[in-house]
Design brief:
The strands form 3 sheets. The protein has a 7-stranded mixed sheet with strand order 3-4-5-6-7-8-9, with helices on both faces. Strands 11-10-12-14-13 form a 5-stranded mixed sheet, sandwiched between helices. A hairpin with a 6-residue loop joins β1 and β2. It folds into 2 domains: 148 residues, Fructose-1,6-Bisphosphatase, subunit A, domain 1 (Fructose-1,6-Bisphosphatase, Chain A, domain 1, 2-Layer Sandwich); 108 residues, D-Maltodextrin-Binding Protein, domain 2, CATH 3.40.190. The chain is of the alpha+beta class. α1 packs antiparallel against α2 and α6 packs parallel to α7. It is built from 8 helices and 14 strands.
Length: 274
């Protein structure tokens, strides 16, 4: 299945935003160019906003009838998000995923876009400005690493291993404090549980076979739609904590990804039980 929009054109738009607005400002942000949105770990920079403006303008040319859902657009107008579930066609964009890293001068950030058609994610892209490459998936077409030289490599999740040898990423910051203590204690059952503070690179590492699991609590669509589709196309099993499918309009309920359903069930039972 292919999406209703030219995926190569979207990839080029993300690259343009990075080259024009994101990379020139990296480690060059001035006083006042970084602001706190909701708390000290939730930041926005001039680069986020400028990149989203460029992406939004280009997407309007590419798909004028599509609903545009950008992280910074929703921050300015939260009512936009309500239109996603019923939209015939929507483009969901995170102009800089990993803003905390970007603002700190750490080269671990990405640009993400997802295409949603009638309540279903049909395409996802994650662009790495530092490596100048993309991971891309269209529904039922596999997941691919697309390199700057034009070559492509199909992606596949790694086979599972016993619980005490699992390596993955887990975002625990949105648990209630008492539940966070329990889950963080449970994570001693796996070999390594870490966080890049950048879902874009966590999904990239997972779909390239470097992690066995990913876990998230807060499900803003710009953070997870692209990555979840790419992961599923790479062979992963993904579901919310209650076992239901993750859909574009979901913003809570948790999300767990694993190489297969048996591993997903074991992680949910033994580690992420709250």
């Amino acid at each position: 299945m292919t999406s209703a929009i030219d995926i190569a054109a979207i990839a080029n738009i993300l690259q343009e935003a990075a080259f024009k607005e994101i990379l020139p400002k990296f480690r060059n942000l001035g006083t006042g160019d970084v602001r706190v949105k909701t708390e000290a770990i939730d930041l926005v920079t001039e680069a986020d906003e400028a990149a989203e403006r460029l992406i939004k303008a280009r997407m309007a040319e590419l798909a004028p009838d599509a609903l545009f859902i950008g992280e910074e657009s929703v921050s300015a107008n939260p009512a936009l998000l309500a239109g996603l579930a019923g939209a015939d066609l929507a483009i969901v964009v995170d102009p800089i995923d990993g803003t905390f890293n970007y603002a700190a001068g750490l080269p671990l950030f990405g640009v993400m876009a997802a295409v949603v058609s009638k309540g279903e994610t049909v395409a996802g892209l994650i662009y790495d400005p530092m490596g100048n490459d993309w991971v891309i998936a269209e529904k039922s077409s596999g997941a691919w690493l697309c390199k700057a030289d034009g070559s492509q490599e199909q992606l596949s999740t790694v086979p599972s291993v016993p619980l005490d040898q699992l390596v993955g990423c887990a975002s625990t910051g949105f648990y209630a404090p008492e539940n966070r203590r329990e889950v963080m204690g449970n994570m001693a059952k796996v070999r390594i549980a870490t966080s890049y503070r950048c879902a874009a690179h966590e999904y990239r590492a997972f779909t390239a076979g470097h992690f066995h699991f990913l876990m998230y609590q807060k499900l803003m669509p710009w953070d997870h739609l692209a990555g979840t589709l790419i992961a599923q196309e790479a062979g992963a099993y993904a579901a919310r904590f209650d076992g239901s499918p993750y859909l574009p309009h979901h913003v809570d309920g948790g999300l767990l990804l694993a190489p297969d359903r048996d591993t997903w069930e074991e992680l949910r039972r033994e580690v992420f039980t709250v």
